Amino acid sequence: MTTIPTSWYVILSAILFLIGVTGVLTRRNAILMFMSVELMLNSANLVFVAFARQFMELSGQIFVFFVMTVAAAEVAVGLALIVTIFRTKHSISMDEINQLKG
Amino acid sequence: MRHHRTIRWLGLGLAVLGLLALPTVVFATGLGSEGGGGAFNAFGTIPLIIFIPVAGLLVNLLWGKDLGEGGVGFVASAASAGAFVIALLQFFSLLANEFHAATVPFLDWIVIGELNIPWAFQIDTLSVTMMLVVTGVGTLIHIYAVGYMHGDVRHNGDPARFPRFFVYLNLFLAAMLILVTANNYLMLFVGWEGVGVCSFLLIGFWFEKGEKNVGNARAARKAFVANRVGDWAMLLAMFLIFWNFGSLTFDVVFAKVSALSVETTAGLLTAITILLLIGATGKSAQVPLYVWLPDAMAGPTPVSALIHAATMVTAGIYLITRSNVLFALAPLSQNAVAWVGAITAIFAATMAVAQFDIKKVLAYSTISQLGFMIAAVGLGGYVAGMFHLITHAFFKALLFLGSGSVIHAMEHGMHALHAHEHAHGGGGHGGHDDHDAHGHDDAHAGHDAHPHFDPQDMRNMGGLWNKLPVTKWVYLIGAIALAGIFPFAGFWSKDEILLDAFNHNPGIYAVLTIAAGFTAFYMGRQIFMVFFGKARTPEAKHAGESPAIMLIPLIVLAVLSVAGGALNLPTIAGWSPPGAHALTDWLGHTISAAEGGHATEDAGHETTGDGHDTATEGHETTTDEHGAATTGEHSTGFPLGQLSFPIAIFSTVVALGAIALAALLYQNAPATVQDEDPLRGILAAIFDVLNQKWKVDEIYEALILRPFDDLAWFLAEIVDWRFWHDWFHDVFIGQNFRIGSRLLAEGMDLGFVDAMANGLAGLAQRIGGLFRSLQSGYVRGYALAVFFGVVAIVGYFWYTFTVGK
Q: What ipTM score was computed for the predicted complex, to two decimals?
């Protein structure tokens, strides 16, 4: 069986990353933004796994666990923040959260 | 008040101490000449001749109020008499010293490099002559003034001013004595100026009176300014002398000058002597600077007698006589001097014949007689000039004091009349007043409502012969002496001048003879108008004689006027009267006129005593006191020192004829003041011109004074105020300054500097704004920035790891 070349995984990861970046940059809804951030993180995961498979190194796969944990924590905190913000501003549109405006 | 009294005690004490200390010091330190050890030598006392009058004036200044009129008069007269005593001491010292001159140094005044001007006293026959005249006549006038001023201060309404008069008189005496005892030109000038100041003070004694209440002050100022013109010339002369001869001391300068010759120095000495002449013109009232003297009659009569007849005005003649060495080497100047004198003599005499004020006649007469003296010294007749100076002092002082007595009598009449009128309920009295600058008029108008009566106007007098028993005789004697009738003093001195003139310059002789004729005429006119005929006004009818204190000096002066000729009698047809040529011999010791350096008959009187004696007889026929070169004309004609009968007889005939003419016109003088002067009947308009003094004052006013005033106004108002201040300062400088400062302030400071600062700030602001825009608070924007950063870093790594190498 012919293996899928690692580069296809990397390219896929890149495409996913770019989609994630686009999502972060263009979404107004904070939850959707987080989803895009998740997508970016998962693309990074994909690259890790791909290279772990190529080099038959386990450390890559282990690292995916770390990333996932971090992602989960980050989402928890982020969502908590959004809930808090919603309580005051009654909106989660990123455009309206500009109190740090200089 | 206590302080005032203390100061006065102190002042008196100082004055007395100074008076006592001075002779002690002087004698103790042996100041004086190197005269014979055993011979009488009082030269050292000469400083007292100044300090005694100064002490007198200090006493009167500080204590005058307390001394009373008698005390003040006594102090002043005693001071003057004391000075006379000192002068006598000098006279006797000179006799004992065989007439050798003495120089008594007193103190060093200016010592700067080459310039050394001490205050030293020069005691020689010339200065002693002047000293004796000044102090002698001065003392008589002081005594007279005590009586005169007693009436005058009451007539003018300010008795408290009495002491001030005597302070000024003593001050004048001190200044005049400084003048005549000076041994250098600058000290002489100090005295010169001093007498000018005193003249100013005394002419303007009644400073608030006179025409329009300012006439006297104006007359005083006129005297001062006219003198000043002369002083300016004299200063220039002194500058020239110092510059060329390195010293101002008489002996030094004269020695240097006599070592020169006419050819090499003509220009310089001519310049110096012409300037000295102008100085003398101012002080001695010659043409053209004589205009102050008639106005000076505004002062009280003793002032006119002392200052403007006997002493101050003679300072010019003294100056020229003293500088005879300089004049001898400048024949052109001598000629100028002689002609100035002659022209003045006749010019003034013509004015005197048409004056109505008794003092004005005498004033013009003085100017005329001074012209005689100046002409004499210009011709080289220094002795003749000095002789006339002395005799003129006698009879002119006599005439002035006599006129004061007459005026006093008229005022007496005025007061008697008013007392009469007030007692009888008043009545009219007429009075004409044609002249200005009298001290008496306005005071009179002040005390009642009658129109101005001028007690000095001769037309108001008449018939005083019967009212003034003593005055009439002394006045007559003075008039005859002035007219030059044998054997009074004026005859001898005037005759000597005429003789000199005839010998040296017949033209001048003619002019002077005509002037002498006029002199006799106007004096005759005056006598007849004042004393004879009928009294023309009630005041004249009530005139009263003066008190003894005024009459005694008059009598003394009258005696001197009669006998004064004895000072320098000539030999008459070979017979030498006792004391002949006394003055010539006496003055010859000082005035070895310009002989030094030239071959002469009698050389060096001062150095060879025996040379003098053997040459005594030579005086009668040689021209020793006359300059070697006068007008280049030969000394022909009559021998000097001898009475020349033709000249004497001719002048006497002229004088008597003039008096006869005056008698013809004025003997039966018109009875009322409204009548025209008889002379006017003959001369008509010419008389008016003479009365108006040839309009000289008006000419000066138009030619000099008015343009000067206009120029001064122009400079002050137009140039200084309107142009300089208003335009130049305020407009030109002011506005341009404002424009300039505005340019700097707004243009530079605000426009440039502020703009720069603001620009910088603005820039900072804009950059800050620019950066601020990054802080949008817009999360997605921040995310975008992060994304760009990541791209940049990845691109950089890509570049380095793939494209590079």
A: 0.85
